[in-house]
Amino acid sequence: MRKFIKAGLMLVLGLTLVAPGMTTPANAASKVKVVSTSKIAKKAYHGKKGYIYSSAKLTKKKHNMKNYKYTTWYGTKKATIKRAGKKRASLTYIKTGKKKGWIYSKYLTAGKAPINKNKKLKDDIASFNRAAMLGDSGFQYFVNFSAKNYEELGNSLGYDGLGQYNGSTEELTMTRKALLGIYDIFKGRFSKIQNANLKAMANDLENFSISSDNDLASEKLRSFAETLENLIQSLD
Predict the structure, then answer these.
(1) In this structure, are 152 and 228 located in the same domain?
(2) Which of 101, 110, 82, 78 is CA-nearest to residue 91?
(3) Are 231 and 190 in contact, with CB atoms under 8 Å apart?
(4) pLDDT tens across 168-221, in order?
(5) Do 155 and 100 share a structural domain?
(6) Most buried residue among 18, 74, 116, 134 by CB atoms closer than 10 A?
(7) Residues 60 and 121 in one domain
(8) Residue 32 backbone phi and psi in degrees, to 5
(9) What is the signed CA dihedral for 24, 27, 29, 35, rounded to 10 degrees?
(10) CA dist., res. 50 & res. 66, Å (int)
């Protein structure tokens, strides 16, 4: 009997010694005091590091900002917190799509995130190739479907393939569809004047009746293609 009593006392003593060192989620949360919260005007932010938490009490990490360097977040709330033994800190509530949470404000930079240029180029090449497939066989013959940069993409539309803009009404109509599709990919990416001029050319080409004058249609296609060529190459 004494052995059982002794064993029981040792177990209780062991739990007493271990318990203070254990931290439950509730205890962890209680160490963060939310001093104040307030709404702020919606503002764009981006960042390179820091965890995004589910609540201002920092109870659960939801995301790591290092995985979202090229993502723009929007802040709508601020909070001031106090942690045991530490100075007060500022948090910002941010959201992008369905992702949201609180992050230390010091990890945020005001403004939209930078563009991931490598990913953008790959996406542009894929979109360019899809649009080019809408053109007739003559148009596709001159397209560099293995292009690795904007210089090579632009060359697909340039002087090497001037003959591709002559053909039947059906072929010219297909080529127009391909060129306007390529325009849709890159519109708005140039200077204000260039964007305005390109838009005017696109509208004119889209509204032109090809069947009424194939020679004029060929000239419009050629002019539009050469303009696109130079502007796309300028993106490198």
Answers:
(1) yes
(2) 78
(3) yes
(4) 899 999 999 999 999 999 999 999 999 999 999 999 999 999 886 788 888 999
(5) no
(6) 134
(7) no
(8) -110, 120
(9) 180
(10) 7
